[in-house]
Amino acid sequence: MSRIAEHPILGPLKPSGREVSILVDGEEVIAYEGEMIAAALMASGRRVFRYTEKRREPRGLYCAIGRCTDCVMIVNGIPNVRTCVTPVEPGMIIETQRGIGRWGGGDHGIH
Amino acid sequence: MKRYCDSLVIGGGIIGLSCGYYLSREGFKVQVIDSMEFGSGSSGACDDMILLQSKKPGVVLELAMESLEMYRFLHMELGCDLGFKQMGGMILIENQEELAVMEEFVSSQRSCGLNVDIVDREELRRRQPHVSDRFISSTYSPDDSQVDPFLVMKGFINAGQRLGMEVRYREAAVTAEKNGAGRWQVLTSTGCIVEAENVVISAGAWSNIVGGLFDISIPIFPRRGQLLITEKIPPIGETNLWSASYMVTKLRPDLAKVRENQSEYNELGLGFSFTRTAHGNYLIGSTREEQAGFKKLVDYRALEALSRQVAHIIPLMRHVHIIRHIAGFRPATPDGKMILGPWPGKEGLYVASGHEGDGIAMAPITGKLLSDIFTGRKSITNMKELIPRCMVV
Amino acid sequence: MENEQNRLICRCEEITLEEIIQAIDNGCTSLNEIKRYTRAGMGLCQSRVCSRLIARIIAEKTGKPLDEIVPVTARPPSRPVRIDIFSPRGCNVKNS
User: Fold this and answer.
1) How buried is B242 (Cβ within 10 angstroms: 0-12 exposed, 13-18 middle, 19+ buried)?
2) Residue B85: helix, strand or coil by DSSP?
3) Do residues B270 and B316 both lie within one domain?
4) Which end of chain B has less Cβ packing within 10 Å, N or C?
């Protein structure tokens, strides 16, 4: 995990939530509850969150404030979730999105 | 400066461009002018449907079916992709009363040759697994189709230009009069005089304003429709969707159910349409407002009503984001039929407008019929009902 | 990136510099027209990221001063908003 523990301006940073486990493309990732999904993925060394629809190019974190499209992933069976503004919840199932993605997938029942 | 042409088309939306293209194809020298920008009027603020199922049997349904046949091959003729897709359509039925009305309606459409049927709950579930199970059955037509209006307009412009058609945006007609030789002299906002044998008014909801320059009163008025646009999402079910309650309100007003928020429904003219664009965004509609004039505003009440409606019918849509809320003006006529043909008593003046919500669907057939009128070719359909008529607005 | 022309201008809809220039060559002179012509700016971010770039391309191609280029028409909601925010679960009928 690579996280900033000591920030030059903000000082020491302590994760506020408890440690929880989420599933990213089938792999377990330890994250902090309430942090943004994108933060947990970056900390776990992941940089590619999705592949674009037309050119099939990899994309990851770009604006990081919920304004652009780039960090969207399939979260609990719902595509296009902006991971930079969506907090981690325990047991979340997160998948790399290809193009416009798909509904459901795995065995999560969407409704 | 002065320009000369055979036909001046006023209005560069999908109808004007279609008229321009089909007239150019017959060898007429055509100029199209539009006071606004490419796609800034109703053609760019509408759904994208070639919807046959909503049409009552008669000339409108016949023409819509013919227009669909033209669309199937139009991309080859224009030489570009038009985003044509045939996803089919279903009109959702909630109760026995609606079912009875829709059964009668569907059988009258079938006798006109429309490929449409009523399907049972199981087939509805199979084709539309995300639709709320309140619905007991549905209509289904495999023929309902759609195009990308912007691509169609671009296609008409490019193919028309290859035939010599000229298109100018940001040029408005200011005055119009006839010269000694009986040719129209139209002064435009760029200071140009366009001399033309014939003028076609295809200014959609704005047609009556243009009509004023020619001292005629065209019974076309704007009806505002508000729509929501979603982000691109994976398909929801196999087809596009509408609800029967709106159709029933129109076909059998006595059966219209009384809702808690009836006055809101009436004022907004709320109906349900749910269509997937060629690019994967969904268009969620729609309102049908009489009193808005030309105010291109959207309001929160409609945003809330449209959101509530779609979440009620397709619960999965609660998770989907709205990226844009738009309004467009449907060119409405008192009798609900478009106006197409020569204006009585005004030689060389034609009107092709008043399609209300069917401008995209009817674009090819409108241009084709107008060119048939110009060349004197006998048209295959009964035109009498469409020729400009005096109507009390 | 293979070349300059292939450079992405609109990230959401993946519209390239070449497509923007083509639209201008075909007579588009405003941000709204280029949007309708190419889809640049029709994506999830609703042109927040690309409209300044496109304004600059218009200025460079047409000589129109940047401060005379009208911004794209903004429509609500100004950010993507989930439908259930407007329609809370279980509140399908408004009682007002």
Assistant:
1) buried
2) strand
3) yes
4) N
Q: Is A108 on the interface with B (CB under 8 A)?
A: no
Number of Cα atoms under 13 Å in the Cβ half of residue B326: 21
Rounded to whole angstroms, the Cα distance separating B76 from C78 reads 39
Of B259, B304, B319, the CB nearest to C86: B304
Within-domain flag for B28: yes
Residue A104 lies in a domain: no
Residue A26 lies in a domain: yes
Residue B159 lies in a domain: yes
Between chains, do A80 and B316 touch, taking CB under 8 Å as contact? Answer: no
Residue A34, domain member (yes or no): yes
Q: Do A67 and C12 touch (CB under 8 A)?
A: no
Subunit partners of chain A (3 or more CB pairs within 8 A): B, C
Q: Please indicate, yes or no, whether residues B290 and B308 belong to a single structural domain of this protein.
A: yes
How do residues B299-310 score in pLDDT, each as one tens digit? 999 999 999 999
Q: How far is B236 from chain A (nearest CA, A)?
A: 9
CATH of domain C4-86: 1.10.10.1100
Domain assignment present for residue B355? The answer is: yes
Answer whether B315 sits within 8 Å of A78, measured CB to CB: no
In a domain, B244, yes or no: yes
Taking only the tens place, the pLDDT of each residue in A82-100 is 999 999 999 999 999 999 9
- Determine contact: A62 vs chain B, CB below 8 A: no
Nearest-by-Cβ selection for C80 from B38, B322, B326: B322
CA trace torsion B272, B358, B184, B383 (10° rounding): -140
Q: Contact C48/C15 with Cβ under 8 angstroms?
A: no
Q: Are A69 and C44 in contact (CB < 8 Å)?
A: yes
| Cα B160 from Cα B78, distance rounded (Å) | 9
Q: Are residues B117 and B14 in the same domain?
A: no
Residues B193 and B312 in one domain: no
Q: What is the ipTM of this complex?
A: 0.90
Structural domain range at position B286: 89-142+221-332
pLDDT at A105: 62
CATH number at residue A44: 3.10.20.440
For B19-58, letters b (16+ CB in 10 Å) and e give bbbbbbbbebbbbbbbbbbbbbbbbbbbbbbbbbbbbebe
